[in-house]
């Protein structure tokens, strides 16, 4: 299985896939709990952006580096530069978490 890294080319079975700002690390958010509206490389249909969670908000650091993406609603999408075939299998791995400091984090999501 390939490991996804920020702005990396991911290789799986000899096939490379480039994902812009895959780990939400393109913006340097140096302080815990810092956040932005918007995320380079991503199209957000509603409110969201880059986020550097504090230990009170998430027990672990972000999956890769310090940042994570956040959404209050809507969707985040990233358009890939390659056209893919319907007769092929592709694997996408993501890490999803809810904030620990909210009484009702309303964690609900669909990945398509």
Structure described in brief:
This protein has no helices and seven strands. The protein has 112 residues and is mainly beta.
Helices, strands, pairings?
Elements: E1 9-12, E2 15-18, E3 34-35, E4 43-44, E5 48-52, E6 68-71, E7 76-77
User: If you average the pLDDT, what whole number results?
Assistant: 77
Number of helices: 0
Oligomer: single chain
The percentage of residues in β strands lies in 15-25%
Ranges where pLDDT stays below 50 over 5 or more residues in a row are 1-6
Terminus-to-terminus distance: 19 Å
Largest sheet: 3 strands, antiparallel
Strand and helix order: EEEEEEE
Write structural notes for this entry.
The protein is mostly beta strands and 112 residues long. The chain contains no helices and 7 strands. The strands form 3 sheets. It has a 3-stranded antiparallel beta sheet with strand order 3-5-6, with no helix packed on it. A hairpin with a 2-residue loop joins strand 1 (9-12) and strand 2. It is globular and about 45 Å long.
